[in-house]
Hints:
The protein is α/β, with parallel strands linked by helices. The chain has five helices and 13 strands. A ten-stranded mixed sheet has the order 4-3-2-1-5-6-7-13-9-11, with helices on both faces. A three-stranded antiparallel sheet has the order 8-12-10, with no helix packed on it. The chain is elongated and about 55 Å long. The chain starts with a strand and ends with a strand.
Amino acid sequence: MKEIVILADGDFPKTEYPLWLLGAAEAVICCDGALVKYIEFSEGKAPAAVVGDMDTLSEEMRTRFADIVVKYDEQDYDDLAKAVRYSLTAYPEVERIHVLGASGGAEDFTIGNLGLLMEFCRSHPDISFDMISDYTTAFPLHDSETFDCGAGRTVSVFSPDPTLRIASKGLAWPLDGVCFDNWWKGIRNRATEDRVALKFSHPAPVLIILN
Length: 211
């Protein structure tokens, strides 16, 4: 299995593209309470697995789907990280993981999940990760890269590494010389070409959000 979807327990998607990804997925892994939303969407079809500490899943649902529940009791990582860990073990051939339902509600929930994307990329550089909502597509980079986004699209660039410098091509406001020492430094740029090229001064965690 090359491509899977992880459904987190945030805002369930309403727009065409994330709903298409969810319906067409080779396998869907639900984080804990997201199972209830997925069962309603799929009209009763069970996902491949339900992963998490089960703190937001009712006893009735845990019993009903006991054969696909994968419970992690440790609290060092959240349910999304546990779902990714499970997916990499269950599907060692996976090449792409789409994360849906990972935003909305509490802002700390969204920020934490976006940060996890960079961690996933750093620890598994051969796998493509993205986090898709009704409003944005977010994906991590760990080194220089050229990506398709379409001219005119809003592009925001974030990094927790203040020593990183990025030379850019295809953006209205070049990133050359920008010090990423605060989150706002690279937001709301605009693509002037269909492809944007970023050249890193050194490997570092970077998050791209396309609107």
